[in-house]
Structures are given as structure tokens and as C-alpha cells.
Design a protein that fits this description.
- By secondary structure, this protein is α/β, with parallel strands linked by helices.
- It has helices spanning about 15-45, 55-80, 85-190, 195-220, 235-240, 240-250, 270-290, 335-340, 360-370, 400, 420-435, 445-455, 475-485, 515-530; strands spanning about 230, 255-260, 270, 295-305, 320-330, 370-380, 380-390, 415-420, 440, 460-465, 490-495, 510.
- Among the domains are: about 180-220; about 230-390, Histidine kinase-like ATPase, C-terminal domain (Heat Shock Protein 90); about 405-530, 3-Layer(aba) Sandwich (Rossmann fold).
- The longest helix has about 110 residues, at about 85-190.
- The structure holds adenosine-5'-triphosphate (ATP) and magnesium ion.
Length: about 525
């Protein structure tokens, strides 16, 4: 009992420990939780300085803290009858509760409005976002337009460079041909035919240069008439090693030229002549890059390329390849140059030194053979050109068998010659007749067919591939061979176009235009001989 005559609250419980401790534990837990909640609430208010209705939160925390203290007092008074103090504490809690209640009443309408405006804010943000998105899309579209215009103009520039390059080179050669022919005619008119020969020789050499140029252009366009067969890369490179060394010329003194050949015994499928000229082009490039000496290594390695290796090389199929690398430690090239090296007529060499057609030939050849070519280079360090050629399923063909037979002096067979270009046809026919052949000429497929049907006793069909009037050379050959399956066919073509000559049947061969006339008779002879 205290001064006021109050008894401790425990007395009411008759100091029964169970009920006493039930109250103590429960009140203490409630108090602890209240303090915890309010402390967290205050922390939240403190951290979110811009929180709306901060006062409400603070009041609410105070009110909860006071609630907690009333529970602590409930424990205290179990043993200490300070009921006045407990009462004051409750009064304080009551005031805080009331203040919170009144504040809530006043704040609620504003809070509701704010909630609404929050929705409005979200809607607004949504609109802003949509507008930003639209703007972004517009920017992307604008950029795409600019990019496509740029691409278009780059394409036009490349085409301009290409046509300009061709026109320039051809004009030079036409000049030489024209001059040569004029001079030859003058000499003949002057009764000095022996002096005409010098000029006609110049004309011939120029024509050969022109033919080499069109051949490289066709290679880049992947329209080069190809005669692919299974080739062992290692053997081919060894067979042209001398030629490659000669190509290095005097530079070889300063160049460490090395072959590291290991094609794993895999033959590759390609036209060996084209392959030779690709290796030659790459070796010349390496030589030019090695003006100050260094190493030039040609290596072969069998490699399996999967889809990941072929990313960015559309059209190339996963499978086995032989990786032919021409590697030099020369001047190398920067990235801007590297990206353009396959463009026809792109060259960094001085005028007269390079035409810029070397790598475009290599590129076209690789792609037309189902392979690919990549260039890795660093300025001052060197360049590696990788030419990946597809492994051939076929066995290696006998190289000797693929060579044209030695030309025969004369022949005596009946030939059907189909060619739409009258000038070329006339000359070929005249030359063949001079060599003893009987030549029947046709200017297109239908004419050839009716001539053949009128009198089918021909020993050989010689036909251009690109022919007008509905039947191309390949189709003509197939139609005639339905009735005469043994008839040999010699295709003469300068442009493979879309007509596939990759799959030639037995008894069919290709002669590439332009050709020297003795090569024509040699091919005719070989075709006739093969027939037996
Ligand atoms: N091994 C290399 N090292 C450094 N640069 C190279 C190498 N190979 C090619 N290039 C660069 O690529 C350009 C194009 O090469 P490409 O073979 O197509 O033409 P070119 O050698 O200039 O002329 P062309 O081969 O027709 O005589 C070269 O001018 C050169 O700048
Ligand atoms: Mg070159």
C-alpha cells in the first residue's frame, strides 16, 4: 500500500504467478512491438523527406509510442501502485490519439484528392512516355532513312568506281588495239606485210590483257565459267612453287618464303586454274606489302567450320574446309582499308602499280566455289588472308586427263557451230574450215535444232551458252542429247550467267572466251578423240 492507500495491481490477481506473468509477457510484447513500429515509421518519414502528410505520420508514431508506454505502466503497477502516473500517461495517450484522429479527419479529403491527382500524374507520365517513345521511333526512322541514303550513295559510288575503272582500262586497251590495227593496215597497204606483224602482235597482247581483265571482273561477279574438280591444295601449291618464287622476283632476297602444307589429305572442290590465280594474286599482294623484307608463309590446315564460325558469311555451309593462309609480316593495313579490299578497283597502290582487282577475284572465286575468304591485318604487323575451300566429296581427278590434248594439225569431222555473235562465229568457222572441218553455222538454238533435225549426222556440237530466242546453249545440248546421247558438246562461253555449267555430263567440256584459235581446234580435237 502506498501513501494514497493504493494496493499494487498484482494484488487484484492475488499474486497468482500464472495470471501475473501472462499479463507481464503480453504487455511487454505489445509495448515492444509498438515501439518497433513507431521507430520504423519515424525512420520511413526521415528517409522520405518529401513524403506527403508527414505530420500525420509523426503524430501516429507518437500515439503508438504512448500506447506502448501505457502497456509498460500496466506492468509497473502490478508491483507499484503509481496509478496517478499511469493515469497521466493514459491521458497523454488519449490526447495524442485524439490529435491523430482530428488530423486524419482534416487530412483525409486532401489525401483523397492527392490520391486522385497521383492517378492523374501516372496518366500524365504515361502520356509523356508515349510521346518520348514516338519521338524515339521518329528519330530511329530518320536515322534509318539517312543510313539507307548513305548506303545507296556508297553503292552508287562503288558502281561509279567500277564502271569508271573498266571504262578507263578498256579505253587504254582499245586505243592500243585501234592503233595497232591501223598501223597493220597501213603497212599492208604500203606493201610491207612483214612490218604489219609487229603491230598485230601488239594487238594480240592487248587483247590478252583485256581478256585477263574481264576474267577478273567475271571472277568477282561470280560469273566466271568454272570447271571445278577435286584438287589437292598441297600438291597444287608445290606445283606452282617455282612460279611463286619467280613472282617474288628480286624481292625474294629480303623475304623469308616458307610453305607449311598440311591439308590433311582432304581434296577441295574448285577450279584449279582459278585457284592458281588466286594464290598468285595473294602472293603478289604479300610481296608488295613486304617492300622492306619479312616473312611470307603459305600454309594449309584442314578445318571444320560450324555455323558459329560462318556467322556473317551467308551462303557458306557448315562442314569441312581446307584453310589456305597467305601470311605476311609486311606493312599491314588499317581497318578502313581492310573493309574495302574486296571492292573491285579499290587499291592503295600508285597508278600503274595495282588495278584493285586482285582480292575481288579471290573473293568471287572463293564464293563461287562455295568457300569464303577473310582478311586479318594490323598496320605494321602484317596480314593473314584465309581462303577456306570446301572439302570435296569426289576423289582427286587425274590432272593429266583434264588437260586439253595436244592440238592436231587438221581434222575431218562435221561440226554444228552455234553462236549469236556473227563476227566471232564467222572467224571461228573460217579457222575450223581451214583446218579441214565441215562447219554448219547457226545463230541461235531454234535454228540449230532445225538444222540438226534436218540432218543429224554431226560429230560435235560447239555452242555458246548465252543464246537468244528461248533456248540457251545448255538447253540445246540437253535437247540434242536426248536423241544423240553420245554427241560430244563443247561450250564456248565468256559468262556463266545463271546457267549452271557446274554439272557437266560426260562428253561435255567448256572453252572460255576469249580464246586463241589454236586452242579451239585443240579442244575440238580433244572432244572428238574422247568420243572415240
Ligand atoms: N597483304 C597485304 N598487306 C597489306 N595490304 C594489302 C595486302 N593485300 C591487299 N592489301 C590492300 O588491299 C588493296 C586491294 O588489294 P587488291 O589485290 O584487290 O588490289 P591491288 O593489289 O591494289 O591491285 P591488283 O591486285 O589488281 O594488281 C591493296 O591496294 C592494299 O591496299
Ligand atoms: Mg593485288
Amino acid at each position: 500500500m502506498n501513501a494514497y492507500g493504493f494496493m499494487p495491481h498484482g494484488f487484484c490477481f492475488e499474486w497468482r504467478p500464472d495470471v501475473l506473468w501472462l499479463h507481464v509477457v503480453s504487455d511487454f510484447t505489445i509495448a515492444l512491438s509498438y515501439f518497433g513500429i513507431s521507430l520504423l515509421l519515424l525512420y520511413f518519414v526521415f528517409m522520405r523527406r518529401n513524403l506527403p502528410f508527414q505530420l500525420l505520420f509523426i503524430l501516429f508514431s507518437a500515439f503508438i509510442i504512448l500506447c506502448g508506454t501505457t502497456h509498460l505502466f500496466s506492468i509497473w503497477v502490478l508491483w507499484h501502485p503509481n496509478y496517478y502516473i499511469e493515469g497521466y500517461d493514459k491521458a497523454l495517450t488519449a490526447i495524442a490519439s485524439l490529435a491523430t484522429f482530428v488530423t486524419v479527419i482534416f487530412v483525409l479529403p486532401r489525401a483523397l484528392r492527392t490520391a486522385l491527382s497521383l492517378e492523374a500524374l501516372v496518366a500524365l507520365r504515361g502520356k509523356e512516355l508515349a510521346a518520348t517513345n514516338a519521338e524515339l521511333r521518329a528519330q530511329i526512322a530518320a536515322r534509318e532513312t539517312v543510313e539507307s541514303t548513305l548506303r545507296q550513295s556508297q553503292k552508287m559510288e562503288a558502281i561509279g568506281q567500277l564502271t569508271g575503272g573498266i571504262a578507263h582500262d578498256f579505253n587504254n586497251m582499245l586505243q592500243a588495239i585501234n592503233g595497232g590495227v591501223e598501223m597493220a593496215q597501213r603497212r599492208i597497204a604500203q606493201g610491207r606485210p612483214e612490218d604489219a606483224a609487229r603491230h598485230t602482235d601488239t594487238v594480240r597482247q592487248t587483247v590478252e590483257r583485256a581478256a585477263a581483265l574481264t576474267s577478273r571482273l567475271l571472277a568477282f561477279a561470280r560469273r566466271q565459267p568454272m570447271q571445278p574438280r577435286a584438287v589437292r591444295l598441297d600438291e597444287l601449291i608445290v606445283s606452282i612453287e617455282d612460279l611463286l618464287r619467280r613472282t617474288l622476283g628480286s624481292a625474294i632476297a629480303a623475304i623469308n618464303f616458307d610453305l607449311r602444307l598440311n591439308d590433311g589429305g582432304w581434296p577441295v572442290l574448285c577450279d584449279p586454274n582459278q585457284l592458281e590465280s588466286a594464290v598468285l594474286n595473294l602472293t603478289i599482294n604479300a610481296r608488295d606489302a613486304l617492300a622492306d623484307g619479312g616473312s611470307l608463309t603459305i600454309s594449309t590446315t584442314p578445318r571444320h567450320l560450324d555455323a558459329a564460325d560462318l556467322a556473317g558469311h551467308e551462303g557458306a555451309l557448315p562442314g569441312d574446309y581446307v584453310d589456305l593462309v597467305i601470311s605476311d609480316t609486311g606493312i599491314g593495313m588499317d581497318e578502313a582499308t581492310r573493309l574495302r579490299v574486296f571492292e573491285p578497283f579499290f587499291t592503295t597502290k600508285p597508278t600503274g602499280k595495282g588495278t584493285g582487282l586482285g582480292l575481288s577475284q579471290v573473293y568471287g572465286f572463293a564464293r563461287q566455289s562455295g568457300g569464303l575468304v577473310t582478311v586479318a591485318s594490323r598496320p605494321g604487323v602484317g596480314t593473314d588472308v584465309h581462303l577456306f575451300l570446301r572439302r570435296a566429296e569426289l576423289p582427286v581427278a587425274d590432272a593429266a586427263a583434264a588437260q586439253p590434248a595436244a592440238p592436231a594439225a587438221t581434222g575431218s569431222a562435221r561440226l554444228l557451230l552455234v553462236e549469236d555473235q556473227a563476227a566471232g562465229r564467222g572467224i571461228a568457222a573460217e579457222y575450223l574450215r581451214e583446218h579441214g572441218y565441215e562447219v554448219v553455222e547457226a545463230e541461235d538454238g531454234p535454228t540449230a535444232l532445225s538444222l540438226y533435225r534436218g540432218s543429224p549426222a554431226f560429230d560435235l556440237l560447239i555452242t555458246d551458252v548465252g543464246l537468244p530466242n528461248g533456248i540457251n546453249g545448255r538447253q540445246l545440248a540437253d535437247i540434242i542429247r536426248e536423241t544423240s546421247p553420245e554427241l560430244p558438246v563443247l561450250f564456248i562461253t565468256g559468262y556463266a550467267g545463271t546457267t549452271s555449267l557446274d554439272q557437266l555430263d560426260t562428253g561435255m567440256r567448256i572453252l572460255k572466251k576469249p580464246f586463241a584459235l589454236p586452242v579451239l581446234t585443240a579442244q575440238v580435237e580433244a572432244a572428238l578423240r574422247a568420243r572415240g
